[in-house]
Structures are given as C-alpha cells and as structure tokens.
Design a protein that fits this description.
Blueprint (H helix, E strand, L loop, with lengths): L1 H17 L17 E7 L2 E9 L21 E10 L7 E8 L7
Antiparallel strand pairs: 1-2, 2-3, 3-4
Length: 106
C-alpha cells in the first residue's frame, strides 16, 4: 500500500512538471552537470526532483554543460523519485524529457 502511494505521488508530481512551460523556474537546470535537485517532504515521503540539460544529438549530459540560458540545449531530462523517509520499501522513479521545440515543429 505504501509503495502504491509512492508511485501515485511520483506520477502526480511528474504530471505537474510536464504541464509547466519549458522556461518555468521549477524546471531550472542551470548550475552543474548534475542539474538542479529539489527535495521536499510530503507526509511520510521524500520527493526528489532533478532537472538537467541533455544533448539532443547524443541523449547524454552535454560535455560543455550550460551555465547560462543562452547555452540552453533545448532538451531537459526530468527525474522524480519518491521514497519513504524511513527507507522501508523501494523507491519509485519516473523519468521524462521536456523539449523546447513544439510538437510537429522539429
């Protein structure tokens, strides 16, 4: 039951992030090659969100990681992880990609 709750929380958080505009501050990926990570507590769970830039040609973290918006790659990887604070059970992990390009426009 707790694992199902963790999965539901991860899905809910991911849906909120996917609804945001590409340049929303909650999708900030500037900083370092590990991207930006935010951890928050919800009930008995820890919800960790990590956003980092991805090179659209390789699908990997860029060799020269962007430190300014002018260096934006146009593609972000968003990871949401949820686990119980007491570390009992497994962690729920969801990953998606958010592109600056509009669907059907390249």
């Amino acid at each position: 039951q707790m694992q199902s709750k963790a999965i539901y929380m991860a899905q809910t958080e991911m849906e909120k992030l996917k609804a945001l505009k590409y340049y929303d501050s909650d999708l900030d990926a500037l900083g370092n090659v590990d991207g930006m990570t935010v951890i928050k507590t919800v009930d008995d769970f820890l919800v960790r969100t990590t956003v980092k830039y991805i090179d659209p040609k390789t699908g990997l973290t860029p060799e020269k990681y962007p430190f300014e918006l002018s260096e934006d790659t146009g593609l972000k990887e968003v990871t949401v992880s949820v686990k119980r604070k007491d570390n009992i059970g497994s962690q729920a992990n969801l990953v998606t990609f958010i592109s600056k390009a509009k669907p059907g426009r390249g």
